[in-house]
Amino acid sequence: MSKSLQDLDVLSHVLKQRLLKADLIDPFEVLVMDTGNLSKRLNMSASECQKLIDVVALGAFPDVEDWTSRFNSMDSFTSGDSAIDDVLGGGIREQSLLEIVGASSVGKSQLTMQSLVTVQLPFEEGGLDARAILIHASKAPPTERLSTIARTYFPESHPNDILSNISLLHVRDFQCLQHALDFFIPRFLVDGTKSKPVRLIAVDSLGELSRQFDSNAHGLAQRNASLLRVVDSCKRLIHKYRLSLVVVNGVSEAIQENQIATMNSYGVQSRAFSGQSVHSTKQAQLGLIWAHNIQTRLMLVRTLRKVHVKVTESEIRMSSTANGEAEARLAMPPKVEESEMNIDRRFKKPRKDETFAVHKRRAHVVYSTYLSGGKCEFYILPIGVRSVEMTRPDRRKGSPVPTCALTPAISQSHTQSIDDDEAKIWASISFSDGDEEDL
């Protein structure tokens, strides 16, 4: 509360003097104090003290504001894929902290790099026509990956023109990150962006920076204190300058003791926010301190199912088998001649007919303050992160071939002797379509 008891207009001069004499300055002291103790300190009856508490509560707290209209007026930009945009409620929203969490090689950095480019798209194409800042912990800047994505969304522009709108900032530890958020970035947002405003800040990755702390109690306390300071600085930035913040986080194995879990156990309740499920023992890093301060947690999972991709000069063909018919076709970006755009040779990669297999991946919202939850499936292709609907060729004869069979089929009489919980677990393993994560 910003106001003191002496600043509340709802209190009379006599009440203010009595509160001051009782050494009561902050409204919070009155609101949490028992009416009996308050009555003794102010020499007032219990009923009068209860009225005082009600008056202080009305005067100290701000008026309730309906945030529906303000929320709907906030800008958002596309992630580069319509299905992921639907999961995120229309795209990556401003003044929000989006965490992308997942194991290694699931597409966290790819989706983050893609958002650094899509925020530069014009408004009519789903972007914000703005610049971006990437705070990375890796030694080498991801310029080659960014230039590849830039050619997809801006085929008629030089990759350097797109990369010039992305400011790269390398940090070694939490101290460097804190200094950048408190001093460097606010100054840069005011003085360093004269052409286009900065509307996106991405951090890749916060989990890697947390490795500097020891795993003992003192190290965890230092990490939590650093996380709180970083979160406070991030929230001040995104609300003051109307920014979107995307943070990449890793996962760790959820190792639990061999004991009976109840509904009040941390291992059971943590599944509501950590991303852990029955089929996956992986959970997001950085613990409760970090989880309580983000708006949306988007978890990416790589499944067992693969599709075969053939890349040609003009299109990308996808099929379930190596030599099968194309079940999906995606157009490749137009190839710009080097004489027309004067593109550097390091950005010009020849395209050859090649076939390779890619894993299907799944993105789902673990929890969010403004989303009801959703999920979608996507692939990481040469043109970026894409959700593709596969249309299988018409087979007039034969039955669909199962994609995965982990256990042999059993008779119906045997399944009747299994209770409901065991049957659900058995069915989820026996008839899995191959979409579950490889454990």
TrEMBL record:
A GO cellular component annotation in the UniProt record: replication fork
Any single GO BP term: meiosis I cell cycle process
Pfam families, alphabetized: Rad51 (PF08423)
Annotated InterPro entries: P-loop_NTPase, Rad51_C, RecA_ATP-bd
Highest taxon in the source lineage: Eukaryota
GO MF annotation list: ATP binding; ATP-dependent DNA damage sensor activity; four-way junction DNA binding
Domain RecA family profile intervals: 73-251
Name of the molecule in the record: RecA family profile 1 domain-containing protein
